[in-house]
Specification:
The complex is a heterodimer of chains A (250) and B (290). Chain A is mostly helical. Chain A is 83% helix and 0% strand. In chain B, 32% of the residues lie in helices and 22% in strands. Chain B is built from 7 helices and 10 strands. Classes of the chains: A mainly alpha (250), B alpha/beta (290). Chains A and B meet through helix 7 and helix 8 of A and strand 6 and helix 2 of B. The complex binds adenosine-5'-triphosphate (ATP) and magnesium ion. The site of adenosine-5'-triphosphate (ATP) has 14 residues of chain B, from strand 1, strand 2 and helix 1.
């Protein structure tokens, strides 16, 4: 390992070690109850329980499915909407003020409504995830289209490009970096939406598991579930990051 | 460099040395050049609350088919505006542009514009950028690819066809932009400070090559430049514009033969013409603050 890599890798690793050590020993030193802050080893020990692992797996799959479906739905609607708003000034003038108003609404507040409409199954959670995902993609797609380089737009006009050619060969590639940046943010928001939806009403999912653990004052279990959620979030986000790096090679 | 300067520094105005082997200017199926006319063109920008800017005032010019006219003028005097009007990108506030006798209403495929900045597409390769005009016209065929490669080789970019624009220097990007403008097979070529970003030495070589290219293709060309000696070396006529609002101060017939050797730069006629043009700007500069 070169000196430079070492200097880059060493600080975060060191921090992790310090935090882990603090987490392990401070609760004991401070005399904290285990249900307030269990030492790290207790949390890690949770992953030794086959029962809990099984629960994490089944509930995790549910949450992951809701997240991905919500992400897909929100992205498709957001991107299509963003393209329409980017193309049409009239659509922008008509819809944008209301979309901003909608964005100011805390979307989790919609969850009870979704439950009334769609029951206790997957659908309301997917919808909460989708509403959270939708906005960043809409805004990023629209601004990506609108902020196309003026000189390049002029070039296309000077070459008598048709509207369709301008879209496929200029506007879409120009908007791609911004769309994918929006998607990166959206991955994390979709997971958030799914868990929040589960908090409101659900029979299964990591959100439900969290609530059960909370009821039982199983703090170590809560931490373990949080770790799994964080891992899912990081993986999803990293997939989006890699996708962007792959597609936006310029 | 476009091309190592060979023993043939003499430049012909007739398209005779077009099929020179080894990186000569590729044989083009250029359509016949067209006459380009501007009649009393005025362009005013702004309005609605903003102080209107008169970018161009009562500009009239008749460019013969196959002629190369240079336009010089201080920064902000409306040169780019004029070229955009020639390209059909803006409709002048008053007056009209005609291409081949037809009034220009919107951009035409046979009028090719090279912009002041290279304006390449970063997601396309050098070759892909060069092929863009053809791609927008029809499906690219093998002939197009071959021609694009020839043009790029002529421009000294033969080894860079598969690179992306960000891997190229500013001057190389400009050369890609020139090749792209030529790929359109234009009847009229509009060049907005094509060599503005280049160092003096590269620039001189590019001038020689541009003149050779123009001679070979015989395309009607309007060239905008800040550089007075570049204008005099390249053009048959030089249009001198005043500071904003751009008005024609003088149209100078360059007293140089059509066959131009680089050595002509040392001739007294060359120096005289340059000095004459320069005198306008020194005088104008004082109250224009350009
Ligand atoms: N789209 C526009 N809207 C408003 N004003 C404009 C616009 N385009 C140009 N202008 C104004 O018109 C004037 C002429 O601009 P133009 O770009 O034609 O100058 P130029 O001669 O090409 O300058 P330079 O040599 O620096 O490139 C400038 O004062 C500029 O501010
Ligand atoms: Mg300009």
């Amino acid at each position: 390992m070169g000196g430079r890599t070492l200097r880059k890798v060493a600080p975060p690793v060191l921090l992790a070690v310090v935090v882990a050590a603090g987490w392990e020993f401070l609760p004991g030193i401070l005399g904290l109850e285990k249900f307030i802050l269990p030492p790290l080893s207790d949390v890690l020990a949770q992953f030794g329980s086959a029962f809990l692992l099984d629960q994490m797996w089944t509930n995790g799959l549910v949450t992951l499915q809701e997240t991905l479906l919500g992400l897909l739905l929100g992205s498709v609607v957001g991107i299509v909407g963003g393209l329409v708003l980017g193309e049409s000034a009239i659509a922008r003038a008509t819809f944008y003020p209301y979309l901003v108003a909608l964005q100011s609404l805390p979307k989790i507040a919609l969850a009870p409504l979704f439950v009334i409409w769609f029951g206790f199954g997957t659908t309301p959670k997917v919808l909460v995830a989708a509403t959270l995902t939708f906005f960043p993609l809409l805004v990023n797609t629209m601004s990506g289209v609108l902020s196309v380089d003026r000189a390049r737009a002029q070039l296309f006009r000077s070459l008598s490009a048709s509207r369709r050619q301008t879209w496929t060969k200029l506007l879409l590639p120009s908007a791609l970096p911004s769309v994918l940046a929006g998607f990166e943010v959206a991955t994390v928001l979709a997971l958030l939406g799914a868990v929040l939806g589960e908090f409101v009403s659900a029979q299964e999912g990591l959100g439900v598991l969290l609530l059960q653990q909370q009821t039982n004052y199983d703090t170590a279990g809560v931490f373990a579930t949080l770790m799994v959620l964080a891992a899912i979030g990081v993986v999803l986000n990293q997939i989006a990051v890699q996708l962007r790096k792959r597609l936006v090679f310029w | 460099m476009f091309r190592k300067r060979s023993q043939t520094t003499a430049l012909a105005d007739q398209p005779t040395e077009t099929s020179e082997p080894g990186g000569g200017f590729p044989q083009l199926s250029m359509p016949s050049p067209l006459r380009l006319t501007a009649q009393n063109v005025t362009q005013v920008f702004g309005g609605r609350g903003k102080q209107p800017v008169v970018a161009l005032e009562n500009f009239s010019l008749d460019v013969e088919p196959g002629e190369l006219v240079a336009i010089v003028g201080p920064s902000g005097c409306g040169k780019t505006t004029l070229l955009h009007a020639f390209a059909g990108l803006i409709k002048p506030t008053a007056g009209e542009i005609r291409v081949g006798g037809q009034q220009l209403k919107s951009p035409r495929r046979d009028v090719s514009m090279m912009f002041q900045a290279p304006t390449l597409l970063p997601w396309k390769t050098v070759l892909g950028n060069c092929l863009l005009p053809r791609e927008l016209e029809h499906r690219i065929d093998e002939d197009d690819r071959k021609r694009a490669r020839e043009l790029l080789t002529w421009a000294g970019l033969g080894d860079f066809t598969d690179r992306r624009p960000h891997e190229l220097s500013g001057g190389m990007q400009q050369r890609v932009a020139i090749c792209r403008a030529l790929m359109a097979n234009p009847s009229v070529l509009l060049l907005d400070e094509p060599f503005g970003a280049l160092d003096a030495m590269t620039r001189e070589q590019m001038n020689v090559d541009l003149r050779r290219m123009w001679a070979a293709s015989g395309v009607t060309t309007v060239l905008i430049t800040h550089d007075i000696s570049e204008a005099v070396y390249l053009a048959g006529r030089v249009v001198v514009l005043s500071p904003r609002p751009g008005r024609i101060l003088e149209i100078i017939d360059v007293p140089l033969p059509k066959d131009r050797d680089v050595s002509l730069i040392q001739s007294p006629e060359f120096a005289q013409t340059c000095g004459h043009i320069r005198s306008y700007f020194i005088r104008e500069d004082r109250h224009a603050g350009v």
